[in-house]
Please model this.
Amino acid sequence: MKVGDSFEYVFKTGHEHSARHLGSGDVDVLSTPSMILFMEEACRRYSDEGLRPKETTVGIHVDVYHFKAAPTGSEIKVRGKLLSMDGRRLTFWVEAWWGDVKIGQGLHERYIVNREEFIRRLRGGQ
Model:
Protein backbone atom coordinates (compact mmCIF):
# COMPACT_ATOMS: atom_id res chain seq x y z
CA MET A 1 0.00 0.00 0.00
CA LYS A 2 1.27 3.42 -0.87
CA VAL A 3 -0.18 6.89 -1.22
CA GLY A 4 -1.32 7.47 -4.79
CA ASP A 5 -2.33 3.85 -5.43
CA SER A 6 -5.54 3.49 -7.44
CA PHE A 7 -7.96 0.56 -7.54
CA GLU A 8 -11.25 -0.46 -9.09
CA TYR A 9 -13.90 -3.04 -8.18
CA VAL A 10 -17.22 -3.91 -9.81
CA PHE A 11 -20.39 -4.74 -7.88
CA LYS A 12 -23.65 -6.19 -9.18
CA THR A 13 -26.73 -4.61 -7.65
CA GLY A 14 -29.69 -6.70 -6.61
CA HIS A 15 -33.04 -6.10 -4.99
CA GLU A 16 -31.34 -6.16 -1.58
CA HIS A 17 -29.46 -2.98 -2.58
CA SER A 18 -32.58 -1.01 -3.56
CA ALA A 19 -33.86 2.02 -1.71
CA ARG A 20 -37.27 0.36 -1.49
CA HIS A 21 -35.86 -2.78 0.16
CA LEU A 22 -33.72 -0.86 2.68
CA GLY A 23 -36.40 1.70 3.46
CA SER A 24 -34.31 4.69 2.45
CA GLY A 25 -36.76 5.44 -0.39
CA ASP A 26 -39.69 3.89 -2.20
CA VAL A 27 -38.21 3.18 -5.65
CA ASP A 28 -36.15 0.30 -7.00
CA VAL A 29 -32.89 2.13 -7.52
CA LEU A 30 -29.48 1.75 -5.87
CA SER A 31 -29.83 3.09 -2.33
CA THR A 32 -27.37 5.54 -0.86
CA PRO A 33 -26.50 3.10 1.96
CA SER A 34 -25.69 0.43 -0.64
CA MET A 35 -23.53 2.80 -2.69
CA ILE A 36 -21.63 3.60 0.52
CA LEU A 37 -21.35 -0.15 1.23
CA PHE A 38 -19.74 -0.68 -2.19
CA MET A 39 -17.34 2.21 -1.60
CA GLU A 40 -16.35 0.88 1.82
CA GLU A 41 -15.96 -2.65 0.52
CA ALA A 42 -13.73 -1.49 -2.35
CA CYS A 43 -11.46 0.36 0.09
CA ARG A 44 -11.43 -2.63 2.45
CA ARG A 45 -10.53 -5.05 -0.35
CA TYR A 46 -7.69 -2.81 -1.49
CA SER A 47 -6.45 -2.39 2.10
CA ASP A 48 -6.57 -6.13 2.80
CA GLU A 49 -3.88 -6.70 0.17
CA GLY A 50 -1.33 -4.66 2.15
CA LEU A 51 -2.02 -5.80 5.70
CA ARG A 52 -0.23 -8.22 7.99
CA PRO A 53 -2.03 -11.52 8.65
CA LYS A 54 -3.62 -10.47 12.00
CA GLU A 55 -4.66 -7.01 10.80
CA THR A 56 -7.89 -5.74 9.33
CA THR A 57 -9.40 -2.31 8.75
CA VAL A 58 -12.54 -0.76 10.12
CA GLY A 59 -14.43 2.14 8.60
CA ILE A 60 -14.32 5.29 10.72
CA HIS A 61 -15.63 8.08 8.46
CA VAL A 62 -17.70 8.51 5.31
CA ASP A 63 -18.36 11.82 3.55
CA VAL A 64 -19.95 11.18 0.16
CA TYR A 65 -22.44 12.62 -2.28
CA HIS A 66 -24.93 10.44 -4.16
CA PHE A 67 -26.07 12.60 -7.04
CA LYS A 68 -27.38 10.22 -9.73
CA ALA A 69 -29.65 7.17 -9.64
CA ALA A 70 -28.79 3.72 -10.96
CA PRO A 71 -31.33 0.91 -11.47
CA THR A 72 -31.19 -2.32 -9.53
CA GLY A 73 -29.69 -5.09 -11.61
CA SER A 74 -26.94 -2.80 -12.88
CA GLU A 75 -23.19 -3.03 -12.39
CA ILE A 76 -21.56 -0.34 -10.29
CA LYS A 77 -17.86 0.33 -10.67
CA VAL A 78 -16.08 1.84 -7.68
CA ARG A 79 -12.81 3.60 -8.37
CA GLY A 80 -10.64 4.66 -5.50
CA LYS A 81 -7.33 6.24 -4.66
CA LEU A 82 -5.35 6.15 -1.43
CA LEU A 83 -4.89 9.84 -0.56
CA SER A 84 -2.99 9.54 2.69
CA MET A 85 -1.65 7.22 5.37
CA ASP A 86 -1.38 8.84 8.79
CA GLY A 87 -0.12 6.15 11.13
CA ARG A 88 -2.86 3.54 11.00
CA ARG A 89 -5.47 5.87 9.42
CA LEU A 90 -6.05 5.50 5.68
CA THR A 91 -7.90 8.18 3.71
CA PHE A 92 -9.42 7.39 0.31
CA TRP A 93 -11.06 9.29 -2.53
CA VAL A 94 -13.85 7.12 -3.96
CA GLU A 95 -16.17 7.40 -6.96
CA ALA A 96 -19.11 5.20 -7.96
CA TRP A 97 -19.93 4.81 -11.67
CA TRP A 98 -22.88 3.29 -13.54
CA GLY A 99 -21.47 2.83 -17.01
CA ASP A 100 -20.04 6.21 -17.99
CA VAL A 101 -22.18 8.12 -15.49
CA LYS A 102 -20.61 9.11 -12.19
CA ILE A 103 -23.31 8.57 -9.56
CA GLY A 104 -21.38 9.39 -6.38
CA GLN A 105 -18.08 10.51 -4.94
CA GLY A 106 -16.41 11.43 -1.69
CA LEU A 107 -14.00 10.54 1.07
CA HIS A 108 -13.74 7.42 3.17
CA GLU A 109 -11.40 6.74 6.09
CA ARG A 110 -10.41 3.36 7.51
CA TYR A 111 -8.28 2.46 10.51
CA ILE A 112 -5.89 -0.50 10.71
CA VAL A 113 -6.49 -2.67 13.79
CA ASN A 114 -5.35 -6.00 15.14
CA ARG A 115 -8.43 -8.18 14.57
CA GLU A 116 -8.13 -10.24 17.80
CA GLU A 117 -7.45 -7.22 20.04
CA PHE A 118 -10.34 -5.31 18.46
CA ILE A 119 -12.80 -8.15 19.15
CA ARG A 120 -11.43 -8.71 22.66
CA ARG A 121 -11.98 -5.05 23.54
CA LEU A 122 -15.55 -5.24 22.24
CA ARG A 123 -16.20 -8.17 24.56
CA GLY A 124 -14.95 -6.20 27.56
CA GLY A 125 -11.40 -7.50 27.68
CA GLN A 126 -9.97 -3.99 27.27
About this structure: The first strand starts at residue 6 and ends at 12. The chain has a mean pLDDT of 93. The chain has one domain: 6-122. The two ends are 29 Å apart (CA to CA).
